[in-house]
Amino acid sequence: MPAHLAEIPPLLIIPFGLLLLLIAVMPLSPDRVKHWWEHRYAYVAVGLGLLVAAYYVFKIPDGGHTVLHTLHEYISFIALIGSLFVVAGGIHLNVKGSATPLENAVFLFAGAILANFVGTTGASMVLIRPFIRMNKVRVSSYHIVFFIFIVSNVGGALTPIGDPPLFLGYLRGVPFFWLLERAVLPWLFTVGAILAAFFVIDRRCYNKIPRSLQTQAAQPEQWRFDGSINVLFLALIIGAVFLPERWFLREIVMLAAAVASYRLTPRLIHEENKFTFGPIKEVGFLFIGIFMTMMPALGYLELHGAGFGITQPLHYYFATGSLSAVLDNAPTYLNFLKLAQVSTATSGVVDDTPAAMQAFLAAHPSLVIAVSLGAVFFGAMTYIGNGPNFMVKSIAESAGVKVPSFFGYILRYSLPVLLPILILTAAIFLR
């Protein structure tokens, strides 16, 4: 971040906090207020974003450059999220019957592995609808929450493709297989612990359903894969991630794949998936507001983060994680990675060169692991911690599944279930 961001008043962080508060409380409001929010959220999100952007443009020297950079990041974000949403909407895994707890656990573990090859967004968009159909006899809110925990977040912690923060690290010199070689054990432990918690809850609920439904759930699953052409478009989108950033080439390829997918996918598949553009519309408007309003928060973090006393791997893990839960985890990762580099450099200045990154990785690998795992794992703590989270929530709601509110998600699942597991991971692997 440029030094001029020091001139931004702390009060400018208020729009970001207000937007997060509205996202959290409006769905819980009386019907009249809730109805108003459902029809006006786009205006509120964009309006708050424009308020912050206007201050940058007119009051901050060269602030327009920061706004343009943030807009570029948003376009890249929504191009990836949107194209994967459209392409995944053209893939239909036909599932008959209902899954047992063991089958659910195996499915989620497979999703965690897949997330490292097609990204948490890609894996989430492809698998969430089949997962709901697998459990259509007894689908509940905890199915969606644990899907977000495992497939939409923790699963993608091993490769740059897995989660956007890790891809940004790859672009800045972290080797492709660097985390895979060093973080498999904490990844396996965390995924395994979350799956164990899920299995206990799912088994208890499964035992409470009528025996006739248990018999139906025990029937062998019959799978049918429709929309296979979209596998090609999915591969094209993932491949586009590695294209140069110039001229929006990457985003153009992604959007072209989405358009081709939508045109070539038979209407019947979209109907079977209950595909609509509603979820991506909601994510698009809310996140343009989030991206714009969080600029002052991220600027403050970079300018004053060195004074927070963050020195040890545990510090970086929890500091990166706590902010990744409420800020977009990609820029949070970059800020703490830069903070780690600056704090450990003898001169206090770090060159943005591959050689400098290699030297830093060799000298302080535990700090990079801590920042990486903190950014990816803690993205599951709230609906807005990572891009796929809100998308999965919207798709589940569109399918008629009752999902927890913003605070319900945190109070019923994140704090009592996920957070102790993440703390235990740190205690074992990051001491």
TrEMBL record:
Superkingdom in the source lineage: Bacteria
The family database entries (Pfam families) matched by this protein are listed as: CitMHS_2
Sorted keywords for this record are:
Membrane, Transmembrane, Transmembrane helix
Instruction: State whether keyword Zinc-finger applies.
Output: no
Query: Membrane spanning segments where?
Result: 12-29, 41-58, 70-93, 105-128, 140-162, 182-202, 223-241, 285-303, 367-386, 406-430
User: Any idea what this protein is called?
Assistant: Sodium:proton antiporter
Species assigned in the record: Nibricoccus aquaticus
